[in-house]
């Protein structure tokens, strides 16, 4: 693991109008971890991802990628947005969507060539979508669309990946495939940060977590911070599903679906 932090968030505050969505957040994401950002609806999880990507205005604080601003390091960062935020009726095919992931390296004036097509096809093969390369994206199922977006992120060959609810609305087979891919990226030394809503799978899927509810409640290795006390602080005492005797009070189950949060 690289000793330098992949992401450093310092004194970050974001407000929409008069309402603070993130308040004085300090967060360090070490290089080479697979991290879940968890918290209730409206906790600021998506806003935190967007702040790292410089997609929202901040009231205070800063975000650094390997010690530099996102604008200087943007080629090191891959992004998978919420599937529901994308216009899937746009008339383009799967291969072309994936090749869009190379535009950051090419620049918008240079057209993708054979190398970019080969990279796109290799990424589609990795996510089990190579046979759909020429299909219109509007013809895909939700899980297939999510795999295409993962392939687009893969061709960026990033060091840091930010993913906003990549498991939302996918079937069990696709979820297992995504988890395997994320764990493979971590094994390669990449840093993967995932907005996640299913508390039951946090200990199984991730090695690092951040618990957020406008303020940062806790962050660190899952086995240290994913505790009953921290979950109650994060969810306002609404965590009533803990199984007696589970290590660190790890939750038995919670399925929070349909989060679009802030």
C-alpha termini separation: 31 Å
Into which percent range does the helicity of residues fall? 25-40%
Total beta strand runs: 9
Report strand order across the widest sheet. 5-6-7-3-8-9
Strand percentage lies at 15-25%
| Form type | globular
Major sheet description: 6 strands, mixed
Specify the number of helices. Answer: 10
* Radius of gyration over all CA atoms, rounded: 18 Å
Mean pLDDT: 85
What's the quaternary structure here?
Answer: single chain
Structural class: alpha/beta
Q: Which stretches are poorly predicted, pLDDT < 50 over at least 5 residues? A: 241-261
List SSEs in N-to-C order.
Answer: EEEHEHEHHHHEHEHEEHH
Provide an overview of this structure.
- The protein is an alpha/beta fold and 262 residues long.
- 31% of the residues lie in helices and 24% in strands.
- It contains ten helices and nine strands.
- The strands form two sheets. It has a six-stranded mixed beta sheet, with helices on both faces.
- The longest helix has 16 residues, at 172-187.
- It is globular, with a radius of gyration of 18 Å.
- It starts with a strand and ends in a 27-residue tail after the last helix.
- The model is unreliable at 241-261 (pLDDT under 50).
Reconstruct the topology from this structure.
Elements: E1 5-16, E2 19-30, E3 34-38, H1 45-52, E4 60-65, H2 70-73, E5 77-80, H3 94-99, H4 103-106, H5 114-126, H6 142-154, E6 160-164, H7 172-187, E7 191-195, H8 202-205, E8 208-213, E9 215-221, H9 222-225, H10 228-235
Parallel strand pairs: 3-7, 3-8, 5-6, 6-7
Antiparallel strand pairs: 1-2, 1-4, 8-9
Helix pairs in contact: 5-6
